């Protein structure tokens, strides 16, 4: 087994590499070299130059291939002056390891890598294969997972573990009665011997991003009749879109209703011109009961109707359409992960669903029955100033991941 100092040093190295929408290839090179030192085969798969995904293999593919995945990119640090310490230097304080990506999700990726290396070095026999898919560009476009899926790297997976952060500080558990009723929180806290409460996420919403463009005709503001006001036409569409999203929709038994939000509106060029162009963008957290494809079809029907009006010229462009992920909570893999999690993390380990998406949306795209468990070190400081991972939970998750790998491939 690796010494604790080496486990921390691997995470420290990952955090030190600024992968804010860039340079994942540097991490891929580092991890490939680390795996090579232990005789583990890897290959790099480029999504674009400098942004290489890494695939690592342990064991031989049989009828069981456990996919494990984590992304290498991070979000922006924001205002650097507000950080207590350098965001790209892993800094220990009060049992916490601070740094950009410490929670989301370089600790999860490091824990997967270390678990695979330890199993290899311990010469543990595996009845099947563990396949690591370390991806690029998850935070913005998930192009890494798209590339790997398109090239067939997910085709043989029979189960998938996504090491995204799945915990909250216990104080947050106690202070959020809307999400965690008092009785539930008290039971979880009483059973928890650590600083954080973690959950097994077995389902999450899909994510649809689209843009609607209104094309008009510019003219001098003193002669508006000579122009076509694109903003007016976009607002006409926006009101119909709002009516559509406000109406009742099919409700999924786990994920509930869709969650739509208009995120950007732009239009016009300057104050003395009739605006000839206007656009809005929207994100919708979709469900199996109302998919992204159905939302697109419904909105295009509205646009076709509006475009029958004189001078109306509206167009919808899909930016991203990721399907929801919804595993059967009774699947043997999910049940085993839940049992092992409770043992290894020293707490009750309940199932949960969330709105935010993961790379699993692409990796499970061609296998909707693939059991997916989103479980990893980290907490609700993702994307925040002074993001951190709890050191104890980081180390516990290495043993947790090893146990899941062994149980699945026994």
Automatic annotation (TrEMBL):
Identify the domain of life: Bacteria
All residue ranges annotated as the Peptidase M20 dimerisation domain in the record: 203-308
Q: What are the record keywords, sorted?
A: Hydrolase, Metal-binding, Zinc
Q: Which SUPFAM superfamilies match?
A: Bacterial exopeptidase dimerisation domain, Zn-dependent exopeptidases
Q: Which cofactor does it need?
A: Zn(2+)
Give the family per the record: Belongs to the peptidase M20A family.
Identification of the protein by name: Succinyl-diaminopimelate desuccinylase
Organism of derivation = Latilactobacillus curvatus
Protein's gene = dapE2
């Amino acid at each position: 087994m690796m010494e604790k100092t080496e486990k921390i040093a691997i995470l420290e190295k990952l955090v030190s590499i600024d992968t804010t929408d860039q340079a994942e290839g540097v991490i891929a090179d580092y991890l490939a070299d680390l795996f090579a030192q232990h005789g583990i085969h890897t290959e790099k798969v480029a999504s674009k130059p400098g942004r290489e995904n890494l695939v690592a293999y342990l064991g031989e593919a049989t009828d069981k291939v456990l996919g494990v995945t984590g992304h290498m990119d991070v979000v922006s640090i924001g205002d650097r002056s507000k950080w207590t310490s350098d965001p790209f230097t892993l800094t220990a304080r009060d049992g916490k390891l601070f740094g950009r990506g410490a929670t989301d999700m370089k600790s999860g990726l490091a824990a997967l890598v270390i678990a695979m290396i330890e199993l290899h070095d311990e010469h543990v026999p595996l009845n099947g294969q563990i396949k690591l898919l370390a991806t690029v560009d998850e935070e913005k476009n998930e192009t890494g997972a798209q590339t790997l899926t398109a090239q067939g790297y997910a085709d043989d997976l029979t189960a998938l573990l996504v090491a995204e952060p799945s915990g909250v500080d216990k104080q947050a558990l106690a202070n959020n009665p809307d999400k965690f009723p008092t009785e539930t929180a008290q039971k979880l806290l009483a059973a928890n011997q650590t600083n954080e409460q973690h959950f097994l996420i077995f389902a999450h919403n899909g994510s649809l991003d689209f843009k609607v463009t209104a094309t008009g005709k510019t003219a001098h503001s003193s002669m508006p009749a000579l122009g076509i006001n694109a903003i007016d036409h976009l607002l006409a569409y926006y009101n119909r879109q709002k009516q559509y999203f406000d109406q009742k929709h099919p409700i999924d038994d786990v994920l509930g209703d869709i969650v739509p939000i208009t995120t950007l509106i732009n239009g016009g060029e300057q104050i003395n011109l009739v605006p000839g162009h206007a656009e809005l963008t929207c994100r919708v957290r979709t469900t199996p009961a109302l998919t992204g494809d159905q939302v697109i079809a419904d909105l295009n029907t509205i646009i076709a109707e509006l475009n029958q009006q004189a001078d109306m010229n509206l167009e919808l462009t899909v930016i991203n359409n990721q399907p929801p992920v919804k595993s059967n909570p009774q699947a043997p893999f999910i049940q085993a992960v839940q049992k092992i999690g409770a043992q290894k993390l020293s707490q009750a380990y309940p199932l949960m669903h969330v709105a935010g998406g993961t790379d699993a949306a692409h990796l499970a795209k061609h296998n909707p029955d693939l059991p997916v468990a989103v479980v990893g070190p980290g907490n609700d400081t993702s994307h925040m100033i002074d993001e951190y991972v709890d050191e104890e939970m980081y180390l516990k998750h290495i043993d947790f991941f090893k146990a899941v790998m062994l149980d699945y491939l026994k």
